[in-house]
Specification:
3 copies of one chain form a homotrimer.
Chain A (H helix, E strand, L loop, with lengths): L3 H8 L6 H6 L3 E6 H6 L2 E6 L2 E7 L5 E5 L13 E3 L2 E3 L6 E2 L5 E3 L1 H6 L13 E7 L2 E5 L19 E10 L3 H6 L5 H14 L10 E9 L2 E8 L7 H4 L2 E4 L3 E3 L3 E9 L2 E11 L14 E3 L15 H11 L16 H18 L24 H6 L3 H6 L21 H11 L6
Parallel strand pairs in A: 11-18
Antiparallel strand pairs in A: 1-10, 2-3, 3-4, 4-9, 5-6, 6-7, 7-8, 9-10, 11-17, 12-13, 13-14, 14-15, 15-16, 16-17
């Protein structure tokens, strides 16, 4: 149970807030690389700031404040140039560093004034990696953009999925360190939603939470497993500061502002060995709706949609003054304490948790992974066909279980990569 | 003309308000019985409280606060159990009295603590009657759920219709004691809307308003009738505290919160004598939209839709400081005064108006009814065919005149019950 | 760069505001004449006031406050009578001067009281002209409704187009005195939107702004023209207080309230000489959507839609404390200063700018017009066919370039008037 002040500390992300300052020390995914290839500008709202992301004709990426400093026109309707982004209202042009490079009429009418030299707008770093565009909004020197181990894998089909979730990021991230919710939200509820009234799934009997360099590992024993299971020995990862990592996929909970979160899913599926070598020329992206337009209720059919129901049900910014935490929530408590400590570290001039600055380390940042062999070496067709159900999350399957609304073209590309016959 | 403070007194319904306390002394219809058979949970907002209504596998009804006390997940996405409602996030389970009956991980990990014994959530009484589920949010002992006379009738086709009306409940209820609006809103305007420029309907020439045990009866004489007419001798009923009763139907104006109202219509149509005996196995329910999606304007084609136009046109919470009441509004004034008195009665520890506690009385609470014979005995096919137009509101007719959007299956069931040939 | 207080002075339009008082000294177009022929009442929100516009059965126009003084019902759902508008709730009737003419039940029940004589509602002047209905909300004596020169022309096809733009009127009107935006927003951006990466349009090299009786003329020289061009000699007109006039069309930016503006376009196209005489029996009107429903982004395909992108991009009420004005914005600065001066003139009891009271002047108020000959005399079919592209804005063309969404029936009527073969 947190006081209102402590709750604000965890949840406020805008400029000038303490958590906002902390989160600005990390890189955040904000778009797909393919997205900017499809349309060269994208309005982005990140950590309470209205920005425009663009890719110019020289393939430079820029992330600028969205309003032109001339007369506040919306630069997301701007024109991308050989080098920079131009406001479509009166033609002022900016480069990716925020310098004003042209003011067409002023440049003709009064070039000697060099009015443009007085104009500078907020500009942030952008880097592409593994199908995503990443933004850094903090002070220099910027840390390295983490090269997580799965980003180094090949022979995989990757897809990126966005959802806009109308609640605060922190309650989403609390779900990254919450083993018990799998038993209920994904196992038992899913069965009941499907009209299946069979016995409930094996219960959790033991939990553990351990900090490591890049977050917290959580481990569990269930009635059907013991401490020899990889669920205990390897565990899963609450990745710092705002992601879940499960081995074959990442889920970032990127704060749009205090009351909305961009869910960014990155899903890797290793192709079966008989489909190698597989090279993916373009990492597809899509947006998953979260509301059932017919009923106005949240969609519940897919795994992450079930998570979203959990998150948004807690309210726009959940009131942690009314919660009643138990033993199941020890990870949540540990995570909050780590954040509270890190806020102090930052304000004392220290480096916050899990920031990577060593290029050697960043050649490949390894993470705990259940079933690494299958992900890095693949499975034979026979192994694949011998695995039933969804249980083996790292085994390729027809159908996308994580989010509602996968477009047909992505499904077909996936099935083609895996050697599945596409269902009609 | 009311002061702002007096207006707030009539219109505020949330917890802690005076009118909210008064309205909590009555039962309110919040859903159809068939609705919970179709889906076992329903989010309900009532008197400013967010609740979840459910029916468990033992057919117990419960009405609980909507947020789980564990970590605030939305219980309307919960799992109904043999006895109670379970949160789908981490499995905490509650019974209809608000007791926490299970906390799966805590029960395994630390059963000796019995953490669940410390957890209790708000829970309210629910009772089914006549196709509706009724809620009581007040203190114990709860009064009886009124057994209004029409609830005792048989050989009738009943349907329940919901509409969400974006304004305060009190201006809706003022329309329950407003005889003159029939002349204009339903007679004359309806003609003009249909492009009919014939002479206007007979005018009201005399009104009377009389309190009785369960509300206020209003009586009228029109140019085409006299004091021998049942419009004068029987009259119609402004039913306490928030309904209209016209003989063959009820309309409750159930406060969702200060600025929205759930209109609940309960419509009884006696089958013609040649269709008896008629037994209705399931009372159907449907939701009537109130906005024309093509124009963004209110729907005006049906009787209660015309009422809705009157209500919402007055604003979200009408400003009674700008009104100019006349002789036509004597009933409105009488009703307000009764509410103001009742607020004082309640605060002095008394029993408010029209609360029923005597089981003998509640075996059948009779009400003034125009045309009771037809409703209780039915009409012959010949009588039915001899009655033209809609004038005889208690005479079964093809077509549903009250609300826009009756679904085809309800229309077909009605026509079948009445022995009408269903229009294509 | 304006202070917040100065910005409020320009942008606040409601009753009791200084700019609101100034704008109430002018006539504003609020509907099409044909619109009231199609439906006799229309809810209007103008300068922050909720009103109802109607046309009664005697063809009187009225503009009344929208809420009935009886019990606040919405008069836009009222009944038009032989002389006045009647509330559909209880039948009170008002004439176009705001007098209450009937209170049906009071008139029968207590005629001696003459309660209606105590009731008066706000009523404003309405006048029809050139396809539009105009409202005047200021003090008497009202000035003349300007008879702008194009309103006196014949042999033209006129159409009226409405759009609701969710931002303050003043930033829309700043666009009326902004020559440079044509180069970018309409020439260069339009090319890029069409995927055309050809060289940019000729640049502006010189601007001039001159006040005249009815606003400010702006003149320009571009790289492809000189001071002999009509763009310099005649110029275009920022028409006082809230319009753009370009010769063949007007665009009024009518303040709905502080954060929304009704764009009213009036487009005149002279028919070619071989189609004369042309008489238009009914000036058609239509509403142009501004949001692409598929993407949620602003529509960008048409000229005024591009302007709308400029306006709304500046925010609901643009913050003029963050702007950086240059030489391109001298007209904007001049316009603001004129408004600031006029606010003082008004408060000193003077007559504000561009108010017309002399009937002789108002027989035909001439304005600077580029290409007046073509507009007043027409072109031959051969001239028409010799003119390529859209450049000659005063030359009739198939296709409506100004706003998205012209209905087929308007397009067909236009093509028929011009002698164009209608595209399928």
């Amino acid at each position: 149970m947190l006081s209102e002040a402590r709750n604000r500390l965890l949840t406020e992300v805008g400029p000038g807030t303490r958590m906002g300052a902390l989160l600005r020390r990390y890189w955040h995914p904000v778009a797909a690389i393919a997205e900017l290839a499809d349309a060269p500008t994208k309005p982005v709202r990140l950590l309470g700031e209205n920005l425009v992301l663009y890719k110019d004709l020289s393939a430079n990426y820029g992330l600028l404040e969205r309003r032109c400093p001339h007369r506040s026109a919306d630069l997301s309707y701007g024109i991308v140039e050989q080098c920079g982004l131009r406001c479509s209202y009166h033609g002022w042009m900016f480069d990716q560093f925020g310098a004003c490079r042209e003011q067409p009429f002023e440049d003709i009418d009064a070039p000697e004034i060099r009015f443009r030299d007085q104009i500078h707008i907020r500009a942030y770093r952008v880097e592409p990696k593994s199908g995503l565009l990443w933004a850094y909004l903090g002070p220099e020197p910027a840390p390295l953009l983490p090269n997580w181990e799965p980003f180094t894998w090949d022979n995989g089909f990757v897809q990126v999925v966005f959802s806009t979730v109308p609640c605060n990021w922190f309650q989403c991230q609390e779900n990254s360190i919450d083993p018990v919710h799998f038993e209920w939200l994904h196992d038992n509820w899913k069965q009941r939603l499907a009209g299946n009234h069979a016995a409930y799934a094996p219960r959790h009997t033991k939990l553990a939470f351990d900090e490591f360099d890049y977050g917290i590992v959580y481990r569990r024993v269930r009635e059907d497993s013991d401490e020899a299971s990889p669920l205990w020995t390897a565990g899963r990862v609450c990745l710092w500061p705002n992601a879940l990592f499960t081995g074959n996929h990442f889920e970032w909970r990127v704060p749009i502002d205090d009351t909305s979160t961009l869910s960014v899913g990155w899903f890797y599926t290793r192709v079966p060995q008989d489909r190698e070598p597989f090279v993916q020329n373009r990492i597809p992206y899509w947006t998953s709706p979260i509301v059932d337009e017919n009923t106005g209720r949240w969609i519940t059919s897919h795994i992450m949609n079930q998570d979203f129901v959990g998150w948004v049900g807690q309210g726009a910014i959940t009131d942690r003054g009314r919660e009643h935490l138990g033993h199941s929530d020890r990870g949540v408590i540990m995570m909050r304490q780590r954040f509270f400590r890190d806020l102090e570290v930052l304000e004392a001039g220290g480096e916050p948790n899990a920031v990577i600055r060593d290029p050697e380390v960043n050649r490949c940042v390894t993470l705990p992974i259940i079933g690494r062999r299958r992900l890095t070496e693949g499975v034979t067709r026979a192994e694949l066909e011998a695995t039933k159900g969804f249980g083996g999350g790292d085994i390729p399957r027809p159908g996308f279980p994580y989010l509602y609304g996968q477009p047909d073209d992505v499904r077909r590309a996936y099935d083609e990569a895996m050697g599945f016959e596409t269902a009609k």
